Amino acid sequence: MPHTASDIERMLAACGASSLDDLYSDVPEELRLNRPYNLPEACSEMEVRDFFAAMRAKMKPLKCFAGGGFYDHYTPAAINSILSRSEFLTAYTPYQPEISQGTLQYIFEYQTIMSRLTGMDVSNASMYDGATATAEAMMMTVAAARKRNRVLISETVNTAVAQVCATYARYHGVTLEVIPQDGGVTSRAEFEMMVKAGDVAGVIVSQPNMFGIVEDYTGWADTCHAAKALMAMNCQASPLAVLRTPGEWGADIACGDAQSLGMPLNFGGPYLGYICTTKALIRKMPGRIVGATKDAKGNRVFVLTLQAREQHIRREKATSNICSNQGLMALHTAVYCSLMGPEGLRQVNEISAANAHYLVEQLCVTGKMEQAYPDKPYLNEALMRVKPGLTATAIIEAAEKAGILAGVTVADDLLLVCATEMQTRDDIDRYVQLVKSL
Amino acid sequence: MNKELYGTLIFELSRPGRTGFSLPKKQTEGGVESSIPAALRREKTLDLPEVDEPTVVRHYTNSSNNNFGVDTGFYPLGSCTMKYNPKINEEIAADATVARLHPAAPDSTVQGALEIYWTLQRALCEIGGMAEFTLNPFAGAHGELTGLMVIHAYHDSRGDSARTKVIVPDSAHGTNPASAAVCGYKIVEVKSLPDGTVDVDDLRSKLDESVAAVMMTNPNTVGMFERSIPEIAEAVHAAGALLYYDGANLNPMLGVARPGDMGFDVMHINLHKTFSTPHGGGGPGAGPVGVRAGLEEFLPNPRVMRKADGSFEARDTDTALGRISMWLGNYTVLMRALAYIKILGAEGLGMAGKLATLNANYIMHRLKDLYLLPIPGPCKHEFVFDGLIDKSTGVTTLNVAKRLLDFGFHAPTIYFPLLFHESLMIEPTETESPETLDRFIDVMRQIAREAAEEPQTVIDAPHTTPVSHPDDTEAALHPVVTFDEL
After folding, report:
1. How confident is the model over A78-104, as pLDDT tens digits?
2. What is the DSSP letter of A78?
3. If exposure means fewest CB atoms within 10 Å of the residue's CB, which of B3, B172, B252, B290 is most exposed?
4. Looking at the complex, does the CB of residue A240 fall below 8 Å from at least one CB of chain B?
């Protein structure tokens, strides 16, 4: 704060006040704090660094073989350099397009990239995270269906994502029903029966699913559409570079987290939720959208379009209350995808798939684990069944001592393991040796 | 800021075969084709930019030069609290160790990360006068929704399910009614008095057993402190409803008065406003939610708690309203906010609010002879002009806002609140020097003079920005939202 004592005096005089407290004469005395906060005294920058260094000493980063919705991929060095440009970092929502073309342009690039990755027509400017984006997709199907409020969600959708959907559903008045899984994939028979029962606004499935399995959704969109229901697919972003896209499956909405596009794990965030849809549903899509137009000089320029801003959001008629986005993480996504390009993203998925398959095979060789769903295709993540005599928790604990995060515990005998380009063959061998020794 | 438009899109720099990545060689056998049947693989070739790293870096650098941030200049955007974001925050958040922490990592390996979260929770409890906070919500609007879910869960737990309405003032941020609608509530609007504060009689007449909550912003969106708040809190509680504090305008109350002491039951704080985390062009932000004693059990999962042995854990509870995020929110944003609280300390935080109020009052007093001040002060952190006093010139609030861009200032918030036709909402924040304010005042006075003497100069503004008068109507009528549609 730049003010000197004489500045304050001069400014108070201009306001006709004699003290700073005069400016608070409208705050009733009984409401005033009248004491300093019970918080530590001001620190110097050095002391702040020391505090966080002390906290850092109580953290132990592990070689990561865990996924479960959060994937350890490489973050190219150029990204942080671009994201720390204060012209991007310290700007707010691009309300004034005349002086916000930088932000508007990268959002337009982001929208294009997400549309291409998902195979959908359009994307919004981004949402908070994959779970809230999926909950918004759920509400979008209900808003589009008008009178129907039943939504089906597969049991194979990531647990945290499904929990967030359930929370939003409860308070938003959506009847959310679970389509059971069968052998690690969404039960086709149950799905058809539940959709045909009628009154379904939307169906939510995922790809790859919570066990890492790549499901076959051939014909699912037709079944949904015959019942006038919308199909929403929750997909991890990076695998979309190699997997059949929501657009190719005939889905109406693609949603999920873009964290797998090289966003650091950062203990849970910030990441980016995305939502993409068809041209027909663009006006039902929540959140901000950037569109191209021309200015008075005929330049191609970009503006926020279609969607209401904070203060003018549709108030009591709103079907979504989001009025910001993960701006800087949309920039991350645009820069990551530009640096990686189609070849880089292909290689990331190639290496991840090869490493994951090597890991799973080798873990099976130890005789301590087997694949829970050995006949199902998977990309970079698979569910392992821990054989009697050993538990998932015991493996996690032993691995932790060796500096390894062995996976995500799904049940006492179920461990979800994952590999990406971040592990070397030696890392995998070290993990396997450790399991063997247990 | 560069006044020439850069305007190129990354797709236009793409050349087949160019790459900008650096990955290790594949060390294991197999890959996508051997893992995934063809029918489950992508059919259409993925079209992404093919560019080298220097091209990417120059592209975004040039593009950034067409952007205006707080580091570029004064950003008096009302209700957005565009204060300076100290650089130490960025250094702290760019932590290579935190970057590698996976949410599923055993608690024993993330004690420091949980302690940071917990320490910020405790600090916000002290600042808000609340018993407990969750830091999981991602943004202000997300915090509002979470807070309303807490209220819903509270009423549900008492079997009090007939409460279907939420009352909001007509001056409220648009997100208040929107959040309430998403939470399944009907909205009832309460009128404002001529001085911009809530009409307590109107509020009383609308309070009954069908009301779940009343949402208030204090100071409100016209920058006025709701002095009847003790009376309002009493009436709301007597009706069995809860009082919600929209923390968007918390900044001027720092060190002066706490929402908990005002009688609020649930509140959110925008860390990207009051606690100086950068806005990032729209996010990531954070909207922690605080509750008074008795409501803690409803806070969303997972919750960070300190165990009896002094260690920390993140765990789910059965009584929680549910889950509202994948994990613990925008974690590195929380680190920035804690760094800020530590740098300012108890005394500095107390000063921040008062100087924000001083800056706002100073501008208000020095411009109120030319701009129409519908509600006389003293204001708090912000105030609203209803356009120029002289309405005969044809110069609108939009014109004034656009003319400011020519002088290197960001525009104030315009046409909000909806209480006035020509709202021009100015919030300077405490980090602006008197010299910056004086220059802004001089320019505002010059614009008023221009409006009288050469109105067309103002009406045609901006004149010097990289872009002028984009066609918003065309953009909305025929939406072109991807490069492939251009």
Report:
1. 999 999 999 999 999 999 999 999 999
2. H
3. B3
4. yes
Q: Which ipTM did the prediction report? A: 0.98
pTM greater than 0.90: yes
DSSP conformational letter for A21: G
The 10 Å Cβ neighbour count of residue B32 is 21
Residue A310 pLDDT > 60: no
- Boundary-marking domain end, from B309, B342, B375: B342
Q: Are residues B104 and B184 in the same domain?
A: yes
Q: Residue B235 is encoded by which pair of tokens? A: 């009436």
Is B138 in contact with A129 (Cβ distance < 8 A)?
yes
pLDDT tens digits, one per residue of B176-215: 999 999 999 999 999 999 988 999 999 999 999 999 999 9
Q: What is the pLDDT of residue B75?
A: 97
pLDDT in tens, B331-359: 999 999 999 999 999 999 999 999 999 99
Residues B213 and B259 placed together within one structural domain of the fold: yes
Q: CB distance A93–B279 less than 8 Å?
A: yes
Helices H / strands E in chain A, number of each: 13, 17
Q: Which of B:252-311 have CB within 8 Å of A?
A: 255-258, 261-262, 278-285, 300-301
pLDDT of residue A314: 64
Q: Which of A42, A56, A266 sits opposite B331 (nearest CB)?
A: A266
Q: Per-residue pLDDT averaged across A51-65, rounded?
A: 98
Angle at B476 between CA B470 and CA B481, to 5 degrees: 90
- The residues near B21 (Cβ < 8 Å, ≥ 6 apart) are A76, A339, A340, A341, A343, A344, A347
The answer to whether the Cβ–Cβ distance between A293 and B102 falls below 8 Å is: no
Judged by CB atoms closer than 8 Å, whether chains meet at A349 and B469 is answered as no
Q: Which amino acid is at B78?
A: G
pLDDT per residue as tens digits for the range B347-405:
999 999 999 999 999 999 999 999 999 998 799 999 999 999 999 999 999 999 999 99
| Structural domain boundaries, residue B280 | 89-342
Domain boundaries, chain A: 63-73+341-437, 77-336
Residue A132, classed as helix, strand or coil, is helix
Whether the CB-CB separation of A86 and B122 falls below 8 Å is answered with no
Decide if A245 contacts A214 (C-beta within 8 A): no
pLDDT of residue A309: 46
User: Measured between CA atoms, how close is B206 to chain A, in angstroms?
Assistant: 17
Interface test with A, best of B50, B88, B142, B323 (most A CBs within 10 A): B323
Residue numbers of B between 350 and 379 with CB closer than 8 Å to A: 350-352, 354-355, 357-359, 361-362, 364-366, 377-378
Report the CATH number that the domain containing residue B260 is assigned in CATH.
Answer: 3.40.640.10
Q: Which residues of chain B have pLDDT under 70?
A: none
Taking only residues 325 to 384 of chain A, the set having a beta carbon closer than 8 angstroms to any beta carbon of chain B reads 325-331, 334-335, 337-351, 353-355, 357-358, 377-379
The domain over range A77-336 is classified in CATH as 3.40.640.10: yes
CB–CB of B317/B303 below 8 Å? yes
Confidence of residue A323 (pLDDT cuts 50, 70, 90): confident
- Those of residues 372-411 in B touching chain A at CB distance below 8 A are 377-378, 380, 401-402, 405, 410-411
Q: Can you give the pLDDT at residue A184?
A: 98
For residue range B466-479, list pLDDT tens digits in order.
Answer: 999 999 999 999 99
Cβ contact B211:B238 at 8 Å:
no
Q: B123 and B55, same structural domain?
A: no
B457 contact A CB<8A: no
Q: Which residues contact A94 (CB under 8 A, 6 or more apart)?
A: A100, A103, A104, A107, A290, A304, B281, B282
Alpha-carbon distance B354 to B276, whole Å? 16
Distance of CA B313 to the CA centre of its chain: 29
Q: What share of chain B is helix, strand, coil (3-state, %, to 5)?
A: 40, 15, 45
